[in-house]
Amino acid sequence: MCGISGIVSRHKQPALEDLLELQRSLAHRGPDASTHYCKGPVALSHNRLSIIDIDTANQPFFGKDKSLCLIANGEIYNFSGIRAHYQKNGYSFTSKNSDCEVIVPLYLEYGIDCLEQLRGMFAFSLWDAERQKLILARDRMGEKPLYFYFSQDNFVFSSELRSIASSRLVDTSVSYRQISRYFRYKYVPEPHTPFEHVQKLPAGSYLELDIATWSYEIKQYWSPWDAKPVTGNPTEEIRHSLEDAIKTCIVSDVPMGLSLSGGIDSSILACMLTEYSSKPLQIFSVGYPDAPEVDERAQAKQLADRLSQPFHDIEITNEYVVETFEDLIFSRNDPISDISGFSYLAIMRKAHEHGVKVMFQGHGLDELCWGYPWIQDAVLINEGKWHDRRIGGFRGARKRMTAQFRGALAGIFNNDKRLKMFDLQAPVEFLDQNFTKCFGTQFLEKAGWPGRDPIEEYGERSKRVDLDVTRLIVEHYLAENGIAQGDRISMASSIEMRLPFVDYKLVETFIGLRKHARDDQLPPKHLLKESVRDHLGDEILNRPKRGFEPPVHAWYNALLNAHGEIFENGHLENHQIVRREFVDKARKPESMSRREREVAWAALNLEMWFRSLDRSSQAVVSEDQVVA
Fold it and tell me: What's the pTM value of the predicted model, to 2 decimals?
């Protein structure tokens, strides 16, 4: 697990000081070793967090004649069999047991199709000097990040957004359109970033930069939607895929830990990890004072004791939230305003204190198994069945259809073929109804708000709305709110986060089963629960879902009261993104409505993010970014 960065210059050799600037900004992602490669038009750097083959696996890795140079971030879980195959056929590895070095002989044999052979989480850069091409690639589900910038003179890439923004070679003009998406979704969906000219390489894709023509092309090599229908017994297929995913990702030469709540997903992880690994698993759980309705530490400790694993209790107070706010923004790197980030930050810091270098988390199953009621609501609404109490009657959700859903239904079936989902949520509905009260006129004009976001456009909806909704939740919500946030916060503490439930073969199983037979009309996680009943037992399986949900509005009030002064002459106000009247009101959060506080928190988060940029004072707002 590492940080990678690089520069390719069109007309000259990149300056070493420019490369080192990128490398220094990624030190937290790789505190164990820092190396770089500079030759001809290419300069590559690598910061290493040692997880596997601690002593002999520093990068770069080279082909035999040094015409190939590889730097990689991540873990190739199936490396052992690949290494054994090439060693048997006479290939000589330079490391004792590195997982990432297998990419080199795979590329020599298969070219870019080597990606088909890799199972794991990774982002890598491969310089092919013979072909004069640079290749960047990301794993199928996008667990490892990669950002890039392209101009007429330079191509710059890095593992993190702040790193690439720190380079004097990069134009960091800010896009109003992407800032509007941030307020809408609480993140900026890939391939976009808040910067007009900086992009994320999409998940499951690779980029090939051709030096001769000074052009690049991006191709997708994998999509979960290409999964073939799975016709076997659903519970058996899910159980097998779960076990396989967890067995595959437990390889490690360093201490491991787990973030555990009282819920099903992390409990599955805890039980299977302890069953399939002989290594001790340090377990961490968070709670909140005077909030018993969302505090699951007791249930987590009960399971840890049952599994005979060490347990660490973490309590997060309002004071902790206020004190660590700036640290959280810096740790997340990207502008993400999910309030649960404070809990992840506390867990990762505690894990770091106890010497843990690999942390497991349970992201993915809620998104893949109808774990959130609003995802099922979106299917029903888009199919015009929201009024049918028989569907979803196990939750009674149709009986208490909330105002925001009823309001969102207006006109939805009047020849509107657009898939509606995120705009069915109360915070987005509030923004769409109150945008003139929150945002400046200039910002609204340039951002194109209000208006349909192309991210939610699928043309005419398919005959399988359940698959359309699944696609949107996986490609955007899971990718940005779950996977991206977890990677940045964990790596800020020099910890590798592993997510077995987004293993691509497991994802293909869920999608394949759904293609064969709809499951959205079953109770949430019904098939998943049946597949793991032997592991967990009825007590855990029958617990009501409470979610990883902190005392949100108490935190909003504390944060706005403590840090609201940063709005004064801040970026958002100076560039007329947020109205002065709204800023003044945000500094007195007790006078705001619930929804107003949510918008004010997002604005506070974004203001602090701008301040966290090394070059924030040089960032300018793009004047020509108008999207209808």
Answer: 0.91
